[in-house]
Amino acid sequence: MDDDVVSVRYIVDDVQAAIDFYTGHLGFTLHSEHLPAFADVRRGSLRLLLSGPASSGARATPPDAATAGRNRIHLVVDDLDAEIEHHRDAGLSFRSDLVEGPGGRQILLADPAGNLVELFTPAG
């Protein structure tokens, strides 16, 4: 993946409707889709990950963060297990269990203010 691309995940109710909105109204282009679970659209260096209810990204969201504002930055890591161990050893707080899905594996980490950071390793 290009180091100049920034990925942001949005949890959406309807992936196709989100694709239509971002590509039809905001100048994004469709990069990939795995309907009904997931798609990603791009505009410049922003890669917007659109995760529907069936996606592993949406399932990783804690129940108490299931309303607007549950968005998080998405950081791709090479070795998710090593990252989890490192952060647990440092006493950092995780907000989800490790979740696996068709696109990869992820876990949510909370920053000191409670904002969510997704650590992700792609499948394959």
From TrEMBL:
VOC domain location: 4-122
InterPro entries in alphabetical order: Glyas_Bleomycin-R_OHBP_Dase, Glyas_Fos-R_dOase_dom, VOC_core
Pfam families in UniProt: Glyoxalase
Name under which the protein is recorded: VOC family protein
Taxonomic path: Bacteria, Bacillati, Actinomycetota, Actinomycetes, Propionibacteriales
